[in-house]
Structure formats: C-alpha cells, structure tokens
Amino acid sequence: MLIQASAGFGMLYRLDLTKAAMELLSALIERQEPGGEVNASQAELAARVGLSRNSANTAMGLLESRNLVLRPKDRKYRTYYLHPYIASYASQEELEDAIEDAAERIAAEELPEIAVPRYETAPPKRQSQPLRAVRAAG
Fold first, then answer.
1. N or C: which end of the chain has fewer CB within 10 A?
2. What distance in Å separates the CA atoms of residue 9 and residue 1, rounded to the nearest whole number?
3. First to last CA, the chain
4. Domains, the chain
5. Is the pTM of this model over 0.90?
6. CA 127 to chain centre
7. DSSP states of 91-111
8. DSSP letter string over 26-94?
9. SUPFAM superfamilies annotated for this entry (predicted)?
C-alpha cells in the first residue's frame, strides 16, 4: 500500500485546473510507482479517462505548467514524474525524506514549486441566484 503525500492536495482547488486536467492527474496518480514515477504514454492515460488526444495534450500542458507533472530534461518518452508534494511513497519514512528533500531542492531552485496562478484581480465569484417559488403542476 502506498502512502500519499498530501502537501499539494490542499491547494488543488487554487490551481484552476480543468476537469480534463483533474481526470488526467487522477490517472497519473493511479499509475505511479513509489516516488511518483509514471511510465505510461499520454495516449494510454487519456484512454483510461476517456479524453481525446487534443484534450489530453491541453490537460497535460496545464499539469506541467502548474508543476504537478514534471518531465525529465531529456523528455524521455512515456516517463512522467509527479511533484514530490503529491506523489505516493512506500513508507512513512520515504514520504518524510522526500518532502524534506523536496523543500531543500525548492529552496536551492533545483525543483520548481507547485505553481498557483496569480491574478491581478481575483476571478469573479459566481453570483448566487435567489430562490423562487415554483407553482405545482395541475
């Protein structure tokens, strides 16, 4: 059983991810090895959640731009890495070591932080509709 790091999950709502990106992220999380390595093609991941090729490309681009999904510098085919803050680990000790290492690498600018979009002005909030009475049929 893998232990899921939850440091990044608390901020997922702030990342402004699309439904397709959330579904693709779920497929990546499901397929990961301990430490966050995922060996699967984008087409396999997309098929798993029912996304078209274009939707999968757009969703993966969004996940990469938010640094939730990291690619090796050589862009090795079929290899993705989940950010250590959302990856799973084989033991509590591995999780603690990985989080500590990630924090040090972020401080040294060797690992990007999870990127939360910054808005000049806050996005508009959905306006709630007042409730109204509806007549019963008849």
1. C
2. 19
3. 57
4. 3-108 (1.10.10.10)
5. no
6. 28
7. SHHHHHHHHHHHHHHHHTTSS
8. HHHHHHPPTTSEEE--HHHHHHHHT--HHHHHHHHHHHHHTTSEE--TT--TTEEEE-TTT-EESSHHH
9. Winged helix' DNA-binding domain (SSF46785)
